[in-house]
Specification:
This protein has a domain at 2-131: dinb family like domain (Four Helix Bundle (Hemerythrin (Met), subunit A), Up-down Bundle), CATH 1.20.120.450. The protein is built from six helices and two strands, in the order αααββααα. The protein has helices at residues 2-16, 34-53, 70-86, 105-126, 134-144, 171-178; strands at 94-97, 100-103. A two-stranded antiparallel sheet has the order 1-2.
C-alpha cells in the first residue's frame, strides 16, 4: 500500500506540470492525447478506489466527465483511493481478475503498473522527468515477473509487447520497455 501511495504522489508531480498548451500533445499511447491520458488516469484511480471499497473488479475504466478538470481532479483521487485500501479487510478479499480468482492485493499491483507506466507516458509527452523512486519501480518490475512473457499475458492485462531496453537502464525505463514503450530516445 505504501509504494502505491508513493507512486500516486510521484504522478501528482507530473500531472501538476501539465500546462494547457501540452494537453493536445501526442503520447506513447498512440490513440490518446495528454488530455485523454489524464482523463484515463483519473478514471483508473476512481475505479481502484471503488475496488478497495468492495466494488467488483471490472475490465477497463469508465471515463470521467470531460467537463471535469483532470489536472485538479487527479489530486482529488489520491486520498479516497488510499483510504479505501487501508480499510480493514480490503487486502484480504478475493477478486475475480482477468487471471482468475486472486487476492485483492494483486489489484493494487495492477494499479501500480498503471500509475508508473502511464506516468512514464505523461513524462515523455510533456518533457518531464519521471519522479518515481527506483525502489517503487523495482518492486513493480519484480511483480511483472509473475506475469510471464508478454506473449503469455492473459487477456485484459493490456499494454503492448515488450521492447528491448539496455540492461543498465534506470528502472522506470526498463518497466516502460517491458510494457511496450519505445525507450530508445530516453537518455
Amino acid at each position: 500500500m505504501e509504494i502505491d501511495g508513493r507512486a500516486l504522489h510521484g504522478l501528482e508531480k507530473l500531472v501538476a506540470g501539465v500546462t494547457p498548451q501540452l494537453r493536445a500533445a501526442a503520447t506513447p499511447c498512440t490513440e490518446w492525447t495528454v488530455e485523454d491520458l489524464l482523463v484515463h488516469i483519473v478514471a483508473v484511480n476512481r475505479k481502484y478506489a471503488g475496488v478497495g471499497r468492495g466494488d467488483p473488479w471490472e475490465p477497463g475504466a469508465t471515463d470521467i466527465d470531460r467537463g471535469d478538470d483532470p489536472v485538479s481532479g487527479y489530486s482529488e483521487t489520491i486520498a479516497p483511493l488510499l483510504e479505501a485500501w487501508r480499510r480493514p479487510g480490503a487486502l484480504q478479499r478475493t477478486l475475480n481478475l482477468p487471471v482468475g480468482e486472486r487476492p485483492a492485493e494483486l489489484a493494487l499491483w495492477v494499479h501500480l503498473r498503471e500509475i508508473l507506466v502511464h506516468g512514464w507516458d505523461l513524462a515523455v509527452s510533456t518533457g518531464q522527468r519521471p519522479p518515481f523512486d527506483d525502489d517503487v519501480v523495482e518492486a513493480c518490475l519484480a511483480s511483472t515477473r509473475d506475469m510471464g512473457t508478454p506473449a503469455t499475458r492473459p487477456a485484459g492485462v493490456g499494454f503492448a509487447d515488450a521492447v528491448p531496453a539496455p540492461q543498465d537502464a534506470e528502472p522506470i525505463v526498463r518497466l516502460a520497455a517491458f510494457f511496450g514503450r519505445d525507450v530508445s530516445a530516453w537518455s
